[in-house]
Amino acid sequence: MELSTRTFRVTRADLVRYAGASGDFNPIHWNDRTATRVGLPGVIAHGMFTMALVGRAVTEWAGAPDAVVEFGVRFTRPVVVPDDDEGTEITVDAVVKEVTEAGLTRLDVTARCGAEKILSQARAVVRTAG
Amino acid sequence: MSLDPSFVGRTYPPTAPYQVGREKIREFATAIGATEAAHHDPAAARALGHPDVVAPPTFPVLITMAASQQIVDDPALGVDYSRVVHGDQRFAYTRPVVAGDELVCVNTIEEISNRGGHAFLTTRTDVTTSAGEPVVAVWSKLVVRGES
Questions:
Q1: Which residues of A touch B54 (CB under 8 A)?
Q2: What are phi and psi of A111, to 5 degrees?
Q3: CB contact under 8 A, A53 and B32
Q4: What is the least distance, in Å, from the CA of B100 to any CA of chain A?
């Protein structure tokens, strides 16, 4: 399995679109006043949006949109998304930890925003044969 | 903030069925930038052996997050939702969610702990079709931050 780095640009517009599609309208994901009032540096991405982007990387590596058997993450650091056209960037990498006889591949995933890791214990199991 | 550990093991009544729509899957896939044909084109999904378009892996959270309000809103448990932060999220799939599914959630409280002034609540949501076929099990760990 070719595990080349995946990069995702995230802007405020992406957060608004994700809020609408997911139904998660928590204002910390679109309103700076609310975000700073609760002690955040600014508007942050939905954790589940970050996880969805990691999911895209995993399905692209696996080569099939229906290949994921298990997928889990721990959210350790918020992804701050500035109110400009550039937004921010998330990079996703993985290493193969195990390939089972049952045709499953276990991946350890790393997701970063800048130099900082934003997830821990990010793991996926994908079906690679059968 | 602390939560009563005696709630561990409590299971809530099944939620009302959720109808998974083709357009909802397309909308969600578009919002996360997932362009694979099987998320958008029923013929491409059928070529992979599915009856209709396939949802991306994190799509079930739309259903389980709404379903787990049952726990968050349980007045006996007393979660202060304004102090909730998402800690962990995990999915174990029997098969992917597809358009046309009618899904029912059963919520169980798996773990409660109180440390350092914060409360930690792990819920498991078993998602099945309304006919009882298992689809995906979803775990969420919520952190209820204490007053500082």
A1: 65-66
A2: -120, 130
A3: yes
A4: 16
Q: Is the confidence at residue B41, as pLDDT, over 90?
A: yes
Say which CATH architecture domain A6-127 belongs to. Answer: Roll (3.10)
Chain B residues within 8 A of A56 when measuring between CB atoms: 32-34, 56
CATH architecture of B5-21+59-144: Roll (3.10)
Tokens 């009563």, located at residue: B4
Picking from B38, B66, B91, the nearest residue to A71 by CB comes out as B91
Instruction: Please state the ipTM of this predicted complex.
Output: 0.96
Smallest Cα distance from A96 to chain B, Å: 19
pLDDT at residue number A129: 64
Q: What ranges do the domains of chain A cover?
A: 6-127
User: Rounded to two decimals, what is the model's pTM?
Assistant: 0.96
